[in-house]
Amino acid sequence: MDANERFLLQFSTGDSYAVRGGGLLGRHPAADPGTTATHLIRVPDAGRSVSKTHLQFGIDDGEFWILDRHSGNGTVLWAPGESPVRCEPGRRYRAPRGSRVEVGEQFFLLD
Question: Hey, is 25 helix, strand or coil?
């Protein structure tokens, strides 16, 4: 496995995105100066539980990781066979395939 590993993000909204490399997701994600984002994924959320730029993600050594960007409603990682973890803002968490990642009231499944 390498940095070009492909992951599929299947959202509760019905949208799916195949990603290679890093990115940002949220209601209206935007990269800060110095932040590289191959993917900008918009998550529709009428209730506004998802922050504008809620989450950063990437792939290191073939493994997917997530990082909450100090979102208003937080991020919860449900890795297979483990207890859910409320992600500490600014800290990377490895998300194995089969994980469910909750962003506000929305979520995506990682395959």
Answer: strand
